[in-house]
Design a protein that fits this description.
Distance between the termini of chain B: 27 Å
Strand content of chain A: 15-25%
Distance between the termini of chain A: 28 Å
Strand order of the largest sheet of chain B: 5-6-7-3-8-9-15-14
Shape of chain B: elongated
Structural class of chain A: alpha/beta
Order of helices and strands of chain A: EEEHEEHEHHHHHHHHEHEHEEHHEH
Oligomer: heterodimer
Strand order of the largest sheet of chain A: 6-7-8-3-9-10-11
Number of helices of chain A: 15
Radius of gyration of chain B: 25 Å
Largest sheet of chain A: 7 strands, mixed
Strand content of chain B: 15-25%
Helix content of chain B: 25-40%
Number of strands of chain B: 15
Number of helices of chain B: 15
Helix content of chain A: 25-40%
Radius of gyration of chain A: 24 Å
Chain lengths: 393, 453
Amino acid sequence: MAHDALLRVEGLSVDFQTSRGLARAVDDVSFSIKRGETLALAGETGCGKSVTARSILRLVPQPPGIYSAGSIYFQGIEESEPLDVLEASEQQVRALRGDRIAMVFQDPSKALNPALTIGRQLGEVFAEHREASVFESAGLGTRSRGASRYLRHRGGLVRRTAYRFTHPSATKRLTDALDERVLQALAETGVPNPRKVMTSYPHELSGGMKQRVMIAQALACDPDLLIADEPTTALDVTIQARILDLLSELQERKGTAILYITHDLSLVRQIADRLAVMYAGRIAEIGDCRDLLSTPLHPYTQGLMNAIPRAETKRGELAAIPGTVPVLIDAPRQCHFVSRCSWAGEACTTHIPRESHPLPDRQVSCLRFESAAAVGAAPGDMPEQYASAEVTT
Amino acid sequence: MTISDDVQVPGAVASRRSLITLRDVAVHYPVKEGVLQRVTSHVKAVDGVSLTIPRGSTVGLVGESGCGKTTLGKVIAGLESPTSGDLWFDLDPSDAENVDRLRNRDPKSMSGEDRETWQRLQGQHRLGSMSREFQGRYRRNCQVVFQDAFSSLNPRQLVRDIVGRPLRVYNEASGENLNQQVLELLERVGLGPQHLLRYPHQFSGGQRQRISIARALALNPEFIILDEPTSALDVSVQAQILNLLVSLQREFELTYLFITHDLGVVEHMSDEIAVMYLGRLVEQGPTREVFDNPFHPYTEVLRDSNPSLTGDSVADGHRRLTGSVPNPIDPPTGCRLHPRCPVAVSTCGWRVDDVLEQLEVSSPASFEGIEAVERSSEFSAVIRLTDDDASRAMAHEVTDLRGALGNVEVDVRRDGKELRVDLPEVDDITLEVIEPGRMSACVHAQSGNWWNK
């Protein structure tokens, strides 16, 4: 099981230093992603889903962030040994970012550099990760420092370079080779008239087009894993539908695994194979996406599903989850959902629920299921207000 | 014209008074350019919208970002004055009839009785010309809840001052009495006395939205404009707010205009729905019927693009819109959706710009060869190219484009290096009644040739 996992996150905890104490944004989170599958990480604002995603690329700024426990193993195709991202050197992580693991951010207008044309920004990826092959297709056998510097200059990584004045013909060939790559990457994401898009600045493009460019940039190096952090939240529904079509089509063609972060459970069904629901820094439930959505077990997942307005719900009778999300600074050792849970009992305020497996391919972190498993009862037989005595710490 | 025309139950007439009646409302913002800041063009944010909001109902206004739904909301709230068109408040059915009958007539040519009616309507019901007293009544009765409760609450005021402000302005209460009333309002929206002396930043998003609602309720209004009240909230909190809004509506017999881009929410909340695209209404009707059987392809695409918990996956061949939203400075002629529409036909209002845009995408090389385009109207133009060969090639390309332009009859005549392109002229396509209570601005629906049947 573990050997075919592309990514394994084990017991990851991330703290943030705040003026009022340590806030535990991610608390003992474990999951894995297989090659080519889509895992959706769903949850409400502040549940730690984005921090989890950023931790995979070690993008959480330190300080204030602290990786206080756990490890993230990434098993690339070429590497024989899985790499622990949190322990790796800065050089190793840089080699991963954008090459083996790529990321698409929520707001494309903030993620693109407003001062560079699209062509140059996309060129950066190739200059950073595919330098050798760009040189090859430009017909330049030997890589001089000047040429390499020029390539990085094209991508906006380096400010000035004298190379283009000293080697005009090589410059031309390098530029053409790089542009060819960029053009191809853009065309793959269905950008109309890619040659024009290449020469335009981000502000000249619409939101949907910008997100396409972001996806082109992310998939430029054929990564093993694409982390999509709410890529469609800033877009309209009609554009969102087209971006989702594009993602699933590209995934089919390239076999990229996707970690899809979203707050919208209704989206998940269309794109994900598996779904993990997070609440207050912990994973509440993981399982096969369609199963989980049709029979949610964790009370939080159930509440979340019922809160979505549907055609058949009577007006004014939406099942809202009462209360609000707890503050995670110096939070007590208990189930974080206890204050909003209709099942909550005594034991819930003193124990952190551990994972139990009430269904095949389903993992739930709820004391009710944990204690049911401990006494061997079917979860449906458990009394609603179950104050577990059997559960030991 | 109104949606409720078919519901003519005698006893129900009084309750079906229209609270807000919009007639051909347009809001155009000037675009200024150059050193002298001369007005060069106008952004047509709202461009001829007629809508009736019956008393006691919830009308959902749906559309994507930039379609003008918030601007329309501002016009109704009186925060923005329309460039043209008018807004009538609290008309009974006979007055509504009079408005429609008289509004396009010159008052000088009216009969004495008509003129009297018109003057009364102007003075008492029309926003902009109504007397001070009626204006005050309108302002009290029409309240707004904005999308972003972060920026719509003053960060330097206490909750008591925020919620009590309308009461103070209208001299309804002061001192201890004010505190008491504010407390009652807060309790009604699910907050308590402990929240009275706090600042907005001490609340969560959902609570802040509750404060906004309490403020809107302070003067006991009849009508509340809800401008994306739950877009910034999580689903579990959204459900709380929606439930609260519904229970308030039942308790105080409120009328809502629910502006949103979320179709799930609007389907849940509203009795009637108006779909907006690029400054125009494209479809209008009872929510259930519109969702089950849309009369406009845009509505259908919107419905099918909306992800659902139970529906099928994305890749099951639903229609999609192509391209992106056109510039509202120069919106498409005819039906505004036609350049993006999946089922466009020749009568949708194709113009020269559509031909050029298609050319740019399908053959960028020859598009680059265009030297000048002289438009004599939206539908005919002379394209000048660099040489004869280029114009010959382009003549072929334009004829080949017909498939992408809904098989419209393009008349191409070549004269040396000039190319004259003529398209059939089409009037603007506006909302028409298709069935009682159902309106659509689609040529398919209006001609009875359905795209989906």
